[in-house]
Amino acid sequence: MFTDELGKPIDPGRVSKEFARVRRTADLERIRLHDLRHTHTSLFLAANVHPKIVSKRLDHASVTITLDTYSHVLPGLQEDAAEKFSQIIADGRLGLAVFLKPLLPECCQEPVFTSRHTAGVRI
């Protein structure tokens, strides 16, 4: 939302027309003002800015809307999460290794977590 000097909302159509005029004057590639919003969001998410912060900046009703719309920007998210979880277990942080180790068969004492499964085991 854009506002005037008194804080009153400016008609979105007026803003879009002015943006198009400035874009043409600057001899820039055709791009809609709304495309800048998507670029802004994609750059933040790719830079690992927390999705809740990005969602608030976009004024989305919930972070779910942001993640559903922009999840394609984060293709490695599942893999990163699985790797971090595997590292936590391997490091013995939070005592998780002590808890999980007795639950695994002897041949599979080292847990491996993948993006396709909540938990897997190396066999």
What is the strand and helix layout of this fold?
Elements: H1 12-25, H2 33-46, H3 51-58, H4 63-70, H5 77-91, H6 96-100, E1 111-112, E2 120-121
Antiparallel strand pairs: 1-2
Helix pairs in contact: 3-4
Which terms summarize this structure?
123 residues, mainly alpha, 2 domains, 6 helices, 52% helix
Your description of this structure?
With 123 residues, this protein is mainly alpha-helical. The protein has two domains: 12-73, no CATH class; 77-121, no CATH class. The protein is built from six helices and two strands; from the N terminus they run ααααααββ. It has a two-stranded antiparallel ribbon with strand order 1-2. Helix 3 packs across helix 4 (63-70). 7% of the residues are buried.
Short account of what is shown:
This protein is mainly α and 123 residues long. The protein is built from six helices and two strands; from the N terminus they run H-H-H-H-H-H-E-E.
Spatial strand order of the main sheet = 1-2
User: Which blocks of ≥5 consecutive residues have pLDDT under 50?
Assistant: 115-123
Total count of strands: 2
Integer-rounded radius of gyration? 23 Å
Main β sheet profile: 2 strands, antiparallel
> What number of domains?
2
Described by the principal axes of the CA atoms, the overall outline is elongated
Q: How much is the average pLDDT?
A: 78
Total helices: the number is 6
